[in-house]
Amino acid sequence: MLRSFICSLCLCAISLAVEAQTDSGATPSSIKTLTLKQYTDYQKGPGLEQMALPATLNKYPMPDDVLRLKKELKLTDAQVKKVTAISQYLQLKKTEIGQSVLRNEKKLDELFQTGKVDEGSITFYGNRYGLYEGEYRTTVLQACYSTYNALTPLQTTQFWKLKKP
Hints:
- This is DUF3347 domain-containing protein.
- It comes from Mucilaginibacter galii.
- Keywords: Signal.
- Residues about 1-25 have low confidence and may be disordered.
- Helix 2 (about 35-45) crosses helix 6 (about 75-115), helix 3 packs across helix 7 (about 120-150) and helix 6 packs antiparallel against helix 7 (about 120-150).
- The longest helix is centred in the middle third of the chain and has 38 residues, at about 75-115.
- By secondary structure, the protein is mostly helical.
- The chain has one domain (about 30-160).
- It has helices at about 1-20, 35-45, 50-55, 65-70, 70-75, 75-115, 120-150, 155-160.
């Protein structure tokens, strides 16, 4: 009896530990491998901050950050137009790649669900994630580079003095 009680207690503790590790408040999305939050985040596109680190840590600014400080930096109309175009293209690519990831995830789910999965399809769809991430990172870093080149050296220095952490 004591042994059975101890086993029950252990099983209860294990199940509580497993439940604590999972996001119990996570609402499922239409793609069962993603939570609703993940799905919504991908619809908007992946975050920029981590992708931009090689640039931003080396003083190449993000276009939206520059646009927020356009008055303080005394950007010309031509500079505002150029940086705005960079920002809009970045947003377009962000959304496009997020949608591609969602389509890819849905296809993988479908292949496994229907039993039509094989090693080739796993490799194909798995590698596409790397391509999407690489394309997105390239776009983010190019946006930082182009934004840097749109500014004068004085504006770049001023930007980093004004930028809030």
